[in-house]
C-alpha cells in the first residue's frame, strides 16, 4: 500500500507536523512540535493508497479531517471529525454510491465499522474476533470501497470531535432529535463540499447508530430535500417502538436459544439441529404461545404455568426452577450470569460467544462485559496507530472511544416511524437489517419485530430485508461473517440503485 501526502484546498485546514525554529538563530531543534489539544474545527489531511478487493486493484484517497457544525447565526459550535475514502479511478461521481457511516453508543465514534467492517483497512484480530498482538492493521479484502465511496462520521465528543468550547450547551448535540438535526446539517455541508448531490446515497448505522440513521433518513428528506437509496441497520435498537410487558419478556427467548445452542447447553434433541433450523421453532413458540401465556399474568393456571416454564427452560438452557422463580421472565442479566454458572463463567452481552470470569459465582448479573473489554483492547491501539501513522492526522486530542454525552435526551424517540415515513414517501428507498444471533444487546428477534412493526400493513415489505449471522453485535469481527456481510452490502447497494431513467413512482 502506497501513501503520499497531498495538499488540500480548504483554507486554513492543513494540520501537519511542524519543526520548531530556534529564536536565537542557533541549531534548530528537530523534535516535532505537536498541535495542542485545541480542536481544529476545519481540517483535512489527504493521503493516497491502494488495496485489492476481489482480485481488483482499487486506488483511493483517504481524507482525515474535521468540518464545522454551524449554529443559527452561521458560527461554528463544534468540529465533527471524519474519514472519507474515495476511489480515484472513477471520474464520473454521479453514478458512484456514497455510503455515510455511523456507529452508536450513543457516545462512540465510527471506529468499529471503519477498521472492523467496511473500510479498506482492518484491525489485527483472530478469525473469531479476539484480540492478538502485536496490535495493528492489514488490508481489508472484503471492503465495499470497490462499489462505493465511504465517509465515517464521529458525532460530537466521540473520536476527535468536540464542541468549540465548554460553554456550548450539550443540549445542542446530546439527544435523539438534537443528534439527528445537527448531523443532517453536517451531512448537507459534506455532500455540498464534495460535489456528491448527484450520487446515490446510503446511510449505515450500527447499534445506537441505527436510531440515528433512521431519524436522519426522514430529516435529510424533509429538511434538506436529500433523498436516499438505502438505509442499512446493523444490530438495530428498538427505534422507539414500544414493546413493554409480555412482549418485552418474550421476545428475547430466541436469542437465549441461540446462545445456549452455541455453548451446548440445550438437550440432545435440540442440540443436534442446526441453529437456523432450530430458531424458527422457538420463534413460533414465542409468538403463538409464550406472548399469550405471559399476557394472562397471575390468571395463568398452574398446569399451563408449569408447561410454559418447562418450554422456556428447554429452549434457554436455564433450569425450570430459575424460570419459575422469575415468573417466566428471565432477565438478560440473569441469563448471562446463569447459563454457564456451574462452569464458572459468564457470557458476554454484546456477543455471547465470549466468556468472562466473575469474582463470585453467585449473584444475578456479570461483573463486566467480557466482549467489550476484548474489543477495546484490539480497536484502541489500532485506530490511534492508523490515524496518526497511516493517515498522518496529528493531534494531541484524546481519541474518545467512549465520549461524555450524558445526560442524553431520549424523549420523543420516533425514529422507527421516521424511517417508515421516509421509505413510504420515497419509492427509491430500501432497507437492509443485519443482525448477529449471539447479540444480547440488540437481539436479532427484536430486530425482526421492529421491521414488522414499521410495516404493519405489509405494503413496503418488498423493500425491507433482514439477514442473520452466526456472531454477535459486531458480526463482522468473525472472518466468515465479514465476507458474507460485506458481500450482502454490495448486493444491496447495487439492487437499490434504479435503472437509468427509471422514475420514482408507485
Task: Describe the overall structure.
The strands form four sheets. Strands 1, 4, 5, 6, 7, 10, 11, 12, 13, 16 and 17 form an eleven-stranded mixed β-sheet that branches. Strands 2-3 form a two-stranded antiparallel ribbon. The protein is globular. It is of the alpha/beta class. Helix content is 33%, strand content 18%. It contains 14 helices and 17 strands. The protein folds into two domains: 329 residues, Rossmann fold, CATH 3.40.50; 126 residues, no CATH class. Helix 2 crosses helix 3, helix 5 runs antiparallel to helix 7 and helix 7 packs antiparallel against helix 8. The longest helix is centred in the middle third of the chain and has 21 residues. Keywords: Carboxypeptidase, Glycoprotein, Hydrolase, Protease, Signal. GO terms for molecular function: serine-type carboxypeptidase activity. This is Carboxypeptidase C (Cathepsin A). Pfam families: Peptidase_S10.
Write a concise synopsis of the structure shown:
With 506 residues, this protein is an alpha/beta fold.
CATH homologous superfamily classification of the largest domain? Alpha/Beta hydrolase fold, catalytic domain
Give me the CATH fold name of the largest domain. Answer: Rossmann fold
User: What's the rounded overall pLDDT mean?
Assistant: 92
- Percent helix range: 25-40%
Percent of residues in beta strands: 15-25%
Q: What is the highest CATH level, the class of the largest domain?
A: Alpha Beta
Unreliable residue runs: 1-34
Q: How many individual helices?
A: 14
CATH architecture of the largest domain: 3-Layer(aba) Sandwich
What's the oligomerization state?
Answer: single chain
Radius of gyration: 24 Å
Structural class: alpha/beta
* Beginning-to-end CA distance, first to last residue: 47 Å
- Can you count the beta strands? 17
**Total domain count:** 2
Based on Cα principal axes, name the global outline.
Answer: globular
Amino acid at each position: 500500500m502506497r501513501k503520499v501526502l497531498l495538499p488540500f484546498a480548504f483554507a486554513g485546514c492543513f494540520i501537519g507536523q511542524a519543526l520548531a525554529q530556534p529564536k536565537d538563530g542557533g541549531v534548530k531543534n528537530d523534535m516535532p512540535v505537536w498541535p495542542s489539544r485545541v480542536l481544529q474545527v476545519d481540517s483535512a489531511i489527504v493521503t493516497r493508497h491502494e488495496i485489492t478487493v476481489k482480485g481488483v486493484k482499487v486506488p483511493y484517497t483517504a481524507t482525515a479531517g474535521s468540518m464545522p457544525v454551524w449554529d443559527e447565526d452561521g458560527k461554528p459550535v463544534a468540529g465533527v471529525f471524519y474519514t472519507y475514502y474515495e476511489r480515484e479511478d472513477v471520474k464520473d461521481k454521479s453514478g458512484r454510491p456514497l455510503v455515510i457511516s455511523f456507529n452508536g453508543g450513543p457516545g462512540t465514534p465510527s471506529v468499529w465499522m471503519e477498521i472492523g467492517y467496511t473500510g479498506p483497512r482492518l484491525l489485527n484480530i483472530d478469525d473469531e474476533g479476539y484480540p492478538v498482538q502485536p496490535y495493528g492493521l492489514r488490508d481489508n479484502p472484503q471492503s465495499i470501497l470497490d462499489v462505493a465511496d465511504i465517509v465515517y462520521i464521529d458525532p460530537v465528543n466521540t473520536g476527535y470531535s468536540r464542541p468549540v468550547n465548554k460553554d456550548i450547551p450539550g443540549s445542542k448535540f446530546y439527544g435523539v432529535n438534537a443528534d439527528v438535526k445537527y448531523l443532517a446539517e453536517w451531512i448537507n455541508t459534506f455532500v455540498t463540499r464534495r460535489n456528491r448531490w448527484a450520487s446515490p446515497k446510503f446511510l449505515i448505522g450500527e447499534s445506537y447508530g441505527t436510531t440515528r440513521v433512521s431519524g436522519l433518513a426522514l430529516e435529510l428528506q424533509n429538511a434538506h430535500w436529500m433523498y436516499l437509496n438505502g438505509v442499512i441497520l446493523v444490530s438495530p435498537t428498538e427505534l422507539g417502538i414500544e414493546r413493554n410487558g409480555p412482549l418485552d419478556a418474550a421476545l428475547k427467548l430466541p436469542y437465549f436459544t441461540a446462545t445456549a445452542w452455541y455453548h451446548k447447553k440445550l438437550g440432545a434433541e435440540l442440540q443436534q439441529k442446526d441453529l437456523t433450523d432450530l430458531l424458527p421453532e422457538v420463534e413460533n413458540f414465542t409468538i403463538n404461545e409464550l406472548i399469550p401465556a405471559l399476557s394472562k399474568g397471575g390468571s395463568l393456571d398452574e398446569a399451563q404455568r408449569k408447561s410454559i416454564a418447562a418450554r422456556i427452560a428447554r429452549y434457554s438452557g436455564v433450569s425450570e426452577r430459575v424460570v419459575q422463580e422469575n415468573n417466566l421472565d428471565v432477565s438478560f442479566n440473569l441469563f448471562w450470569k446463569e447459563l454457564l454458572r456451574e462452569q464458572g463463567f459468564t457470557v458476554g452481552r454484546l456477543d455471547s460467544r465470549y466468556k468472562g470470569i466473575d469474582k463470585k459465582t453467585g449473584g444475578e448479573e456479570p461483573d463486566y462485559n467480557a466482549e467489550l473489554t476484548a474489543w477495546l483492547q484490539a480497536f484502541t491501539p489500532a485506530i490511534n496507530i492508523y490515524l496518526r501513522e497511516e493517515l498522518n492526522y496529528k493531534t494531541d486530542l484524546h481519541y474518545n472511544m467512549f465520549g461524555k454525552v450524558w445526560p442524553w435526551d431520549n424523549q420523543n424517540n420516533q425514529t422507527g416511524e421516521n424511517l417508515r415515513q421516509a421509505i413510504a414517501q420515497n419509492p427509491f428507498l430500501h432497507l437492509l437489517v443485519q443482525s448477529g444471533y449471539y447479540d444480547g444487546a440488540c437481539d436479532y428477534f427484536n430486530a425482526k419485530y421492529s421491521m414488522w412493526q414499521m410495516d404493519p400493513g405489509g405494503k413496503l415489505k418488498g423493500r425491507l430485508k433482514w439477514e442473520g449471522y452466526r456472531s454477535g453485535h459486531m458480526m463482522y469481527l468473525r472472518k466468515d461473517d465479514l465476507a458474507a456481510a460485506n458481500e450482502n452490502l454490495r448486493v444491496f447497494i447495487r439492487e437499490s440503485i434504479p435503472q437509468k431513467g427509471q422514475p420514482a413512482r408507485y
